[in-house]
Amino acid sequence: MSNPQLVMYDEEAKQISAIIDRLTKEANAKVVFVVDKNGQLISSSGETAGLDTTSLASLTAGNIAATGGLAKLIGEKEFSILFHEGEKDNLHISIIAQRVILVVIFGSQSSLGLVRLRVKKVSEELAKIFESLARKAEAEAESGDSPFAEITDDDIDNLFN
């Protein structure tokens, strides 16, 4: 089976937003965001006003790709959890459903133990949502009912001309 393009629907987007909003509060995090493995920001929560979320998303995906290479070198499939400790802020990065990346930025007002506990709890919820989206994408690919099926290259060219 090919890996069909993930299409985000409003219902699932709202569920993801609600879950990461809750995680931000329960883990006492500064920022939580969900990124696909291609580096596209899916959703964010918390104090994002001063952050370049686009760069953070793409660098996070690059970090996952780089550590994936390290994992393979030592005979592992991948490292599902990464932790980076800074002077003021810390990053907890985890892979959800082998499809997306959950990033939690937190400072001294929280702890790694609390973040790990809360991330583990919401990971299962997020995995169910992304597995459901993958099933929808597979069904659309098999039936040809993609919401983008009727869009042609000419339509896209006309849009930008």
Q: Based on helices, strands and strand pairing, what is the structural class?
A: alpha+beta
- The overall number of domains is 1
Shape: globular
CATH topology, by name, is: Beta-Lactamase
> Biggest β-sheet, characterized?
5 strands, antiparallel
Could you give the order of the helices and strands?
HEEHEEEHH
Distance between the termini: 36 Å
- Count of helical segments? 4
Arrangement of strands in the largest sheet: 2-1-5-4-3
Overall number of strands? 5
Q: What level of helicity do the residues show?
A: 40-55%
CATH architecture descriptor: 2-Layer Sandwich
User: Which CATH first-tier class would you pick?
Assistant: Alpha Beta
Fourth-level CATH superfamily: Dynein light chain 2a, cytoplasmic
Q: In what range is the share of β-strand residues?
A: 15-25%
- The whole-angstrom Rg is 17 Å
Mean pLDDT: 88
Spans where pLDDT lies below 50 across 5 or more residues: none
